[in-house]
Input
Amino acid sequence: MALLEVRDLRVVFQRKGEVPFTAVDGVDFDVEPGQTVGLVGESGCGKSVTAMSIMGLLPKRGNKVTGSAKFEDTELLTLSDRQMRDRRGRDLAMVFQDPLSSLNPVIPIGLQVTEVLERHRDMSRRKAMVEAADLLDRVGIPDPRRRLDEYPHQLSGGMRQRALIAIALACQPRLLIADEPTTALDVTIQAQILALLAELVRDSGTALIMITHDLGVVAGLCDEVNVLYGGRVVERGGRHDLFQVPRHPYTYGLLQSIPRLDAPKGERLSPIRGSVQDNIPWTSGCAFAPRCPNATDTCVEVTPEMVPDGAGSVRGERLLRCHNPVAQEVPA
Amino acid sequence: MLRYTVRRLLQLVIVVGVLSLLLFAWLRSLPGGPVSALLGERATAASRARLTQELGLDQPIFVQYWKFLTRAASGDFGVSTGVQPGDTASEIFLQRFPATLELSFLAIVIAIAVGIPLGYLAARRRGGWLDNLSIVGSLVGVAVPVFFLAFVLKQVLAVDLGWFPTAGRQEGGLDATRVTGFFVLDGVLTQEWDAAWDAIRHLILPAIALSSIPFSVIFRITRAAVLDVLDEDFIRTAESKGLTTPVIRRRHVLRNAMLPVVTTIGLQTGALLAGAVLTEKVFAFPGIGQALALGFERRDYPVLLLLILCAAGVFVLINMLVDLSYALIDPRIRTAGGAR
Output
């Protein structure tokens, strides 16, 4: 049985005096225990909003969340604020993008780790401090005892993200959601943080949802990948299948727009035309159609369904939402 | 921290020193002067010349300033010519300064005690009735002149309803013992509770009038600061840890919102001293505000000089305390100072 089962998740922003905006338009995906699942897409495709709604972190006011997100048979979307608070940080935890702004600047690191232990594991401050030092040690922060008394501005960017990971994993959650955890970091640090995350979830058996726009991150980390476009999953598959045989023109476009060192000199990058604003709602036709090189009249008129894709299923099951998938393989 | 404090204290001395020079020159450049104020317009040239010489005003201004400085160094700030002729400026200061401090202190306490919680609540319920009501209230608080508010309060609550005394610091018949010059404190120290209570009753209305502007500003800054902090990423992190709302408020929201508020409180003490002049006039409250008003009317140089310098000193001192308190609130400032 899946650890997390997301079905037909929809999030509509309804602000006073504004046209309602659908940020997430029927997302389905599963996360098995211990599995690492990628949510990939460009800015504005709804990946962060999906995560926030699963965590119950979207403000109640102005946001309508429908559908289902079942965590071990508990429907998260209908839990009360109090019940959700009891689970957040204990059963499911989250790591955010910008480590500096995600830590409270006026509170020592130690307290920021211990407060979650005190909250969910009934620890005394003293005991929690010992545990916190141990946690910081485990995420590779040198001299953890001294760090406990330091403030976020005294740590480097990579150390801050390590501290946030320690906080998230403090209560041994079964699901960790990482929302672009390396975007704000230097490239060398990015690799370290990704390696750390991979190691920690493997050792602890924590399932990980990796949210990113960086296909490199996905390639190195994820068992299964969901490609999001316009608030819906357009393609799903194991990472090997997806990278070797991208079937959705959007996935193909994403892979094509990665710069390659072995490309002939002077060859131009091939970006995806347009931007995500060219989005049309999924109500009539495919949202990607305006930007899609393969688009036909059918694409504009008939909304594609998510169906198993035989041609793409090399090693495992593959799902695709496209009328005219890409036939060729990515040139090696 | 110690070096910083010493440096700031030196700054205080320099500020007050420079200000004394400017004030000295400025007061003497005002039209009229103590001689005309004392003798009136019809005095003979001879009597004017005699008084001018007696007060030492016939000497060059830098000689006068030098004399002021040397005497001030030994605690002699001269004799009042207009406010309470014959008393020394220091005596007047000792009588009146505690009164104004007492009044200002109560006013700022009211402003903080109401402004911060209300600002916090308004921000939590942005757009709600409490928010809208308090925004309008704070707008009125800033817009209505202090003396007008003082007048209305006095007329309605003191004169018409008789709930509060109309003027002064203490009922004459009480015969309270004086220790420090702070009447409330004196009452507590000597355990003359009726005197302490009477002094508080005299303070309430002027303090409310005086607190209107600081309250409004503190309320607005608190509200804005809390709204800013609620949008911060680290609040989202705190929420993602499943912390309870009271912990998030206390530990994460309020502490971060306090920095701009503390700054404002420091700056508002300046407005407080300015407002005190008007409020004291309305309530015939014998503080420095009243003495300043009278001092200007009668061109009482020694009293004006001492009172204004002390007010400036208090302002600088309080803002110094505010700067020091930053370090307590924000560790980023602490390390920046410690690194040097």
User: Anything to note?
Assistant: Chain A has two domains: 4-222, 247-261+268-320. DSSP finds twelve helices and twelve strands in chain A.
